[in-house]
Design a protein that fits this description.
mainly beta; five-stranded antiparallel β-sheet; globular
Length: 66
């Protein structure tokens, strides 16, 4: 039969109520060379890393997904 392979292998939460992590647009980390996503909270809303870089927006790193 068909094998079920998970698409997401890991999720790492960064910002917590006591410890917020803010980064400028040029400091946003890439996950697995761009294969994963960094999710940020910016002044324009919740954005993935590539959109935030494209719009030159920094913000709070919420989590990384790969």
């Amino acid at each position: 039969g068909k094998q079920m392979i998970p698409v997401l292998t890991n999720l790492e939460v960064f910002s917590k109520p006591g410890v917020r992590m803010y980064r400028k647009s040029n400091e946003i980390p890439q996950v697995l060379g761009g294969l994963g996503l960094t999710i940020l909270s910016t002044s324009k809303g919740i954005l993935p890393d590539h959109k935030a870089r494209e719009m030159s927006l920094g913000g709070e790193i919420l989590c990384m997904v790969w």
